[in-house]
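Dear Dr. H.,

I hope your travels went smoothly. While you were away I took the liberty of generating a structure for the chain from your last submission, since the lab meeting agenda had it listed for discussion. I wanted you to have the full record in hand beforehand rather than looking at slides cold. The sequence, exactly as received, is reproduced here:
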Amino acid sequence: MLGFGVPAFALHAMPQAEWDDRLQFFRLIPVAAIVGLALSAADIAVVAANMAGLPLTALDWDSVSTVITETAAGTAWLVRVGALLAVIAFAGLTRDRRWLCPASAVCCAAALATLAWSGHGAANDGRVGVMHLLADVVHLLAAGLWIGALAGLLLMLRRVQPSDCASLDGAHRELAGFATTGTVIVAVIAATGLINAWLLVGPGQFATVAGSLYGQLLLTMLALFTGMLGLAAVNRFWLTPALAADAFNGKSALRGLRSSLIREVALAIGILGLVAWLGTLEPPMAAI
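The corresponding predicted structure, in token form, is as follows:
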């Protein structure tokens, strides 16, 4: 998500003239790809061990090879690894960020989309399966844009000083410029989340969903998402305008924005953890 969302944020919200002054944005991209490769390696090992009924310590290459070559999740894993390796290659071969930024965004978008084949969305067949898989892909990409924007905004605000009018103006411009895009991203996340809930929980199960662990985790995730929406609204409608207000002199609003974004990131991490947990559980529709 960081490998896709951070360069996407830079392309959308940052003037290219400022790219050379924002090295932390571009250093994060290959680091995210390397961490993604390590997690992908661990993931395929765990999946292969589970499918073979073996402990990780007894896992052999034949079991891993079977998963990679004979399953849709294995094919998706190969695409993911190839895309992440391409990002690392781009970062090592070019210093021209005009190429690195869009190339990394495209490759990491492809890598992120492949995660849909490891989730519940790949379990259905026919038109429902296609719709579920497509909703998962769009959900992942939209979430990646939001996560990347949060990271990008935090990195940007680290360099802003209350006494520097030019940096305050630039920060306000980038925050205000991302506001409309952020609203669209939230709407897409909500819409695709509703599709997933409809397909995984089922319309007849909503009333009783809180009685299961799956439902309790889902409701907790929705509560955290609501908290993120509240913080995003405060950022957009109060703190961002306050950053440009002479009465605040930038200082109070800047401190508030940093604090709010850190809280939003903490909630996002909690949501991702719950999503990972939910992915290991049987959804209510599977029992029908």
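Two observations you may find useful: The chain has a mean pLDDT of 85. The longest helix spans residues 165-200.

With kind regards,
E. W.
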